[in-house]
Automatic annotation (TrEMBL):
Keywords: Glycoprotein, Membrane, Transmembrane, Transmembrane helix. The keyword Membrane applies. The keyword RNA-binding does not apply. Residues 138-210 form the Ig-like domain. This is Ig-like domain-containing protein. The chain crosses the membrane at residues 239-266. It holds the Pfam family C1-set.
Length: 284
């Protein structure tokens, strides 16, 4: 608790049906928190205590939190600027009056949130900078199984996982006809995700674009174009390639026949009886 920057403590409190009331007091050895809750109900209840700080290095701004909650609702909170307490419910008024009178304790709370907590937060950021500040842009591609199936915008290899990907039409974010996939881990510690787009008319393809967003990395935008879509369909070879292949094959056969005929004539003129087996071997 002493060094926790962003600490949330939750406790389940069980009260028997015959209990009249319970007074709960929590105080750390450094007077970080003191509050009293009186209850007279039975069943299981949850008391929550959150202490933490936020540090904005760019704006040089610090925010601190001392908050108590009960059964999922705010009970009392510390105002860092005024060093007073805020009671959003009538049940917390007695606690607020008691805590407001702790002038020295409130000064210590502000010092902890604005100095001690921030110092430790900076140390933790420095220790984990290799992972906390790591940024890996993804490889983004458009995939489609068949011309009638949805177009999938797939991004893989990005880090961290706090990323977003969406489709736009004419510059506007698109929500209808879009299937947002989950962010999944890769074997190397990076992540992947995809978002599918259905019902795209061929004449409207130029109006769509896939956008990948990752904090600290420039947005990656890919226009929906048939030439960049990867598909599972086998592409038939161009007609000119087929014609060239036929011509090459015909020339090769013709050259082989001419060579065989020339060899046969040469043997005949030289008086050697043609060897039918050799001729057949040459022809085939």
């Amino acid at each position: 608790v002493k060094r926790g920057c962003g600490l949330c403590v939750g406790m389940g409190l069980s009260f028997p049906a015959a209990s009249a009331s319970l007074s709960l007091s929590i105080r750390s050895k450094h007077r970080c928190l003191f509050t009293t809750i009186s209850v007279s109900v039975s069943g299981v209840h949850v008391y929550q205590w959150m202490v933490g700080c936020e540090w904005d290095d760019d704006a040089k701004e610090v925010k601190g939190y001392y908050q108590d909650g009960y059964d999922g609702e705010d009970f009392i909170a510390f105002d860092l600027k005024t060093k007073t307490w805020i009671a959003p419910t009538p049940q917390a008024l007695i606690s607020r009056q008691k805590l407001d009178n702790e002038k020295a304790g409130n000064t210590q709370r502000k010092q902890y949130l604005t100095e001690i907590c921030v110092d430790w937060l900076k140390k933790y950021v420095n220790y984990g900078s290799s992972s906390l500040l790591r940024k890996e842009p993804p490889s983004v591609s458009l995939l489609q199984k068949t011309p009638s199936s949805p177009v999938s915008c797939h991004a893989t290899g990005f880090y961290p996982h706090r990323a977003a990907m969406l489709w736009r039409k004419d510059g506007e974010d698109l929500y209808e006809g879009v299937d947002q996939g989950e962010i999944l881990p890769n074997h190397d510690g990076t992540f992947q995700m995809s978002v599918d787009l259905s019902s795209v008319k061929p004449e409207d393809r130029g109006k769509y674009e896939c956008v990948f967003q990752l904090l600290g990395v420039k947005d990656i935008v890919i226009k929906l174009d048939k030439s960049v879509i990867k598909t599972n369909e086998e592409k038939s070879p161009p007609l000119i390639a087929i014609i060239i292949a036929i011509i090459i094959a015909a020339v090769a056969v013709l050259a082989l026949v001419i060579a065989a005929v020339g060899f046969f004539i040469y043997r005949k003129k030289s008086g050697e009886k043609p060897n039918h087996r050799r001729r057949l071997f040459l022809l085939f």
